[in-house]
Design goal:
By secondary structure, the protein is an alpha/beta fold. It is built from eleven helices and 13 strands. Strand 4 and strand 5 form a beta hairpin.
Length: 305
């Protein structure tokens, strides 16, 4: 197959980013993730297929969506719309009729060629700033062929560098296939204890830690990210265990990211309960304390926004 025709599912393309790698970058968000992190800021990225979100606060109760749904998955109630997600075909017709933003369709099938045509629009900015292409998600390694072709296109046709943001939960062979074409890896670590990891992400961490070791042994530059979730993974034992794991496996870079609840509305729009409603973001002072603690294990530690 022509590499440019390889197809994948994307839910966003963000241009002019300065937060997802060096320089000015375009971030391509791929749909599909094996984790179900309770704090996920992009819960619409988790399912691999396109989805519908319903924001009740934006709904004008016009009922246009109800009349155009071919699956009869929508019902108009006095206080809003009821969406039967089992019946929904994710065709997007209802969202196309919604003028208020109450219904939003997320995720679409596209090709490598189509994505990279958009990425190439900012080539001059990448070259001037040392930027390039970042793949995020979701989990980009869950679409390994699509991800590999995007990264290879960036290297061979655009001559720019590449970054992936990964949770590391993928079969190692597929993970390595993507890593081969990546210049910088941002690797998320959530918790060092398997039981605690499973409790708040829905999966254990054995394969994640193995792939972290693989990434560190590959010769690629790896920067680890640790989201700080108060009351779950911000205890001294976990912070020190994370820092020691990085150091003992040849790593040196850790960035602590403070919890925020920016994804709460999207969880509700997907018909889910946001479990961390009562959790407050850690203070700047607390983040500095944790950074100092981790740095004491012999690695470089920074605090993100």
């Amino acid at each position: 197959m022509d590499p440019g025709k390889v197809e994948g599912v994307v839910f966003n393309i963000q241009r002019y980013s300065t937060q997802d790698g060096p320089g000015i970058r375009t971030v391509v968000f791929l749909k599909g993730c094996p984790l179900r992190c309770a704090w996920c800021s992009n819960p619409e990225s988790q399912e691999a297929r396109p989805q519908l979100l319903y924001f009740r606060s934006n709904c004008r109760l016009c009922r246009r969506c109800v009349t155009v749904c071919p699956a009869q998955a929508l019902t108009g109630e006095a206080d809003g719309i009821v969406l039967d997600r089992e019946r929904c075909r994710a065709c997007g017709r209802c969202a196309s009729q919604c003028v208020s933003g109450g219904l939003r369709f997320t995720g679409y099938y596209t090709t490598v060629e189509e994505v990279m045509a958009e990425v190439a629009q900012d080539l001059a900015f990448y070259r001037e700033s040392g930027g390039g292409l970042t793949l995020s998600g979701g989990e980009p390694t869950r679409q390994p062929e699509f991800a590999c072709e995007l990264l290879k296109w960036a290297h061979r046709r655009l001559g720019v560098d590449t970054v992936i943001e990964t949770c590391g939960l993928q079969e190692t062979e597929a993970f390595l296939s993507v890593l081969e074409h990546t210049d910088l890896v941002y690797f998320d670590l959530k918790h060092m204890r398997d039981d605690m990891h499973r409790r708040f992400t829905g999966a254990g961490n054995a394969l994640i830690l193995h792939n972290a070791q693989v990434a560190l042994g590959s010769g690629k530059k790896v920067v680890f990210h640790l989201p700080i979730i108060p009351g779950w993974n911000d205890d001294e034992a976990n912070i020190l265990a994370t820092a020691r794991f990085i150091r003992e496996n040849g790593g040196s870079e850790l960035e602590l990211l403070p919890y925020h609840a920016l994804g709460a509305a999207k969880h509700r729009a997907l018909g889910r309960t946001y479990e961390l409603e009562a959790v407050k973001p850690p203070s700047a002072e607390r983040m500095r304390e944790l950074a100092d603690l981790a740095a004491g294990a012999g690695i470089n530690v920074s605090v993100g926004g």
